[in-house]
Amino acid sequence: MSPPGPPSWDQVRAEFLLDPSYAHLSMSLVASHPGPVRAAVERHRAGLDANPALYFHHRDDLVRVVLDRAGAYLGAAPGDIALTDSTTAGLAVVLAGFRLRPGDEIVSTAHEHYAASEMLRFKAAASGARHRVIRLYREPRLVTEEEVVSALREGISDETRLLVLTWVHSGTGVKLPLGRLGELVAEVNRGRAEGREVLVCVDGVHGFGVEDFRVADLGCDFFVTGCHKWLFGPRGTGLVWGSRRGWDAVTPVSPSFDVEVFWPWYLGFSPDDVAPPGRRFSPGGFPAFEHRWALAEAFEFHTAIGRTAVAARTRQLNDRCQEGLATVPGVSVRTPVDPALSAGMVCFDVADVPPDVVVERLLEARVVAGQTPYRSSAVRFAPSVVNSPADVDRGVEALSALVPGLTDAER
What we know:
alpha/beta; Aspartate Aminotransferase, domain 1; 17 helices; seven-stranded mixed sheet
């Protein structure tokens, strides 16, 4: 008997309890749990409720399964992965702990999320390092790889020690060519003394669960992501992968409660000498264990579908979305068409209409859209593998119907 193949897209959609009366085009915000993840959460919750102390003793075995599956998904050693509860928490692990001295420079971009921008402001004030912000492109719709590479080349100085990038910009939908940017940084580092290289930290949340990749191919020292968006993992989960050079440049900001860290300390040894870096940098405290441990099933669910299939399906739906929006008068799309420079979301403006008005009116038509959390805000459709082409068409048709009917007061 031949092994079962990957599920159909209808089977994938059936794993979610999403209200079928809506077209859910804002799943990039926070995920609905698929069936296997829901079941795992409930299994762990039941175990903790029935005998919390006894079930808690299994925590190391359960964490090892999560890390093994995360490592297989990333193409990385499980010991190089720290578990967190969000992208923001992961950025704090790296940015707050990164060792800088006065005169060092942090470079980030004008396209970063509020959380990263504020965290870097805090870091610069605490460390005495300079924080400089550069712009990688002017017009997102027309961006080219050469424009981005050239801007970064000009933006790195002799004092630059930490470079912070976001893989997919959630305000424009632009996806950075990380492989090429990594090559540029490697070229810069060939002329640097050991310990003075430029290290790269990537917020990868809107490429994670969308793109078919291996983390080693991205050219970064840290890859930070939440797992409760495109991966459809348990809400309140995330991770940080670090290269050995990366972890060596960071000081822990929270004592880890991991078994491999606590027991060496308890026995009088330094955890730094024996525990893998990912275990040492996982922030301590008691997380929502049933969610963290159910992350294993999220990786398994995604792997069963197939990363290549997920990437192709997401691309197909986003291409369809772009094609549909191009036919709507008054709509201006920010996101590039080129798949090398875009991923799982399409950001757009409606002429003279605030994005919150557009989102509210779409909701009246039972289409759930997003609004980008930036000062220059836009409307956002984010089709994923929970969607069908009909969902995308429904979103475009609802937008087409409402644009002419917007009143002068709404405009």
